[in-house]
Predict the 3D structure of the following.
Amino acid sequence: MKGTVSLKGTQEGYQLIIQSSASLEDAYEELKSLTSQMRKDSHNRREIKFHVKTGLRELTDKEKNIIIEIVEDDYFKISSFESDVITREKCVRWQKEASPTLEVRTVRSGQMVEAEGDMLLIGVVHPGGIVRASGSIYIIGELKGTAHAGVNGKESAVVVANFRYNAQVRIGDNVHVIEKKDRQIDEEADTTEFVYVNDLHIIEVSKLEELKALRPELDNYAGGIYNG
């Protein structure tokens, strides 16, 4: 069936658009004909890249390999595959990243609490206790131990907590020790602050009211879906 594959030029090369409603067998045959004709017409022997778009069809690895075998040679290369389909695995991963893990507990010395994505902890982290998350960490309570956000290298993560006491904060590979022992602290004051990595890749402690200005993307999550 003709019209199952269309070609669109871009600055990076070409888009190969395969109709999602078409038979893949028809698409393979049309790809063979299309690329064969392009090879005959091509006088400038330079590398040409193809970005394959399949719409509402998710190709298997086997199907991708068949297309690669048809298209690629010394000059024709496939740079990527793209579909409009979201796999179950990707949905689960996005949900974990967008929805904070809620923990209501006390983290005592020697204990470690971990989360994929963001963590919301309601409780106290005692000295020697550790909380870790691949995203940001929000603690409603006192942090006296260690909080490690962005454990997989996400430096945009933050740690929000009551820093009334000595604590250690890590974001990615950056480490900062919060020391309060030499400061006069008003027992009635709200000492909730947040820790972040600035543009110079240095950890800073800032007032909570500055969080939105410094990390506006944190406001782009709603109902587990990223709205950025």
Summary: Residues 68 and 78 are 7 Å apart (CA to CA). The domain at 5-82 is CATH 3.30.750 (Transcription Regulator spoIIAA).
